[in-house]
Design goal:
By secondary structure, this protein is an all-alpha fold. The protein has two domains: 159 residues, Hypothetical protein af1432; 94 residues, no CATH class. 71% of the residues lie in helices and 0% in strands. It is built from 16 helices and no strands. Helix 15 packs antiparallel against helix 16. The protein is globular. Bound molecules: fe (ii) ion. Fe (ii) ion binds next to helix 2.
């Protein structure tokens, strides 16, 4: 399955690139998704290797898990193409599900369904009617673990690409200057409130650039596996992300406080 997935991803990427090739922003955006998809597989491989649950799974489940990792953003390319050509925004998780479940080479549950809600709040997965109707306990357990895997690896890869290729890709994660006042150098109260509640920040509340970065940092509160925390620490990602945050937030006392708050939170898992 994984080998076919590589070909599928490449062809979707190339098709999209062909459409947007004259627009620098979109070329960068498309390329980032291509690099990101492969980094998600890399981060996921680390989790698979270190989490005891995966070590007990048969080869076909591991193959499906790796396929889900690689293809989780396969419909991003369609999303980008439609945004570029028609100004339309589609849900790339839902779209990937619709697309992959029609393709017999991909497992409907372990690949297509595990991807469907990767970008949504977790409740969307647990409240999905088809998941609720699924009676096979073992399959439910496998789908859930792959869902967690994709979510964690997706976050780690996003943290990593922003920290390691900041000049090229950070702008894709920040609001455009016409949306947010870049002279505002502090996070706002509701965002801090969510953060100190160990919650992923409510995106609709973001008002300043530090809000956007803190919302991004709050993804740490949504990691599911211990190995994910270990991997982030290994790559020194929390420190690197705070170095970015500090560029946009001028309150050094607050920066230090938030950084030690997050690091103390992460220590509980390692
Ligand atoms: Fe992703």
């Amino acid at each position: 399955m994984l080998e076919q997935a590589k070909l599928l991803l490449k062809s979707e990427y190339e098709k999209c690139l062909q459409v947007v090739k004259k627009d620098n922003f979109y070329v960068n955006y498309t390329t980032e998704k291509w690099v990101h998809s492969r980094q998600v597989l890399g981060a996921g491989n680390f989790i698979i290797k270190h989490e005891p649950w995966f070590q007990k799974q048969p080869d076909d489940v591991i193959d499906a898990a790796k396929t889900a990792l690689l293809l989780h953003d396969v419909a991003r390319f369609e999303e980008i193409t439609r945004r570029f050509l028609e100004g339309i925004k589609i849900d790339h998780g839902e779209r990937a599900y619709e697309k992959l479940k029609e393709m017999s080479e991909y497992d409907e549950w372990l690949v297509a369904f595990a991807i469907k809600h990767h970008g949504h709040v977790k409740e969307c997965f647990y409240e999905d009617e088809s998941y609720l109707a699924l009676k096979d306990e073992n399959l439910r357990d496998q789908v859930e673990h792959i869902f967690w895997l994709v979510r964690d690896a997706d976050k780690i890869a996003n943290f990593n690409i922003v920290c390691e290729e900041r000049e090229k890709y950070l702008e894709l994660f920040l609001p455009s200057p016409d949306k947010v006042d870049y002279s505002e150098k502090k996070p706002t109260e509701p965002i801090l409130h969510d953060f100190y509640d160990n919650k992923t920040v409510d995106y609709s509340l973001r008002k300043s650039v530090p809000d956007y970065i803190l919302a991004f940092l709050s993804w740490y509160f949504d990691l599911n596996y211990k190995s994910s925390v270990v991997f982030c620490e290994k790559l020194n990602l929390p420190d690197k992300m705070f170095a970015i945050f500090e560029q946009y937030c001028d309150d050094q006392v607050l920066n230090d406080k938030l950084k030690s708050y997050l690091k103390d939170y992460l220590k509980r898992f390692v």
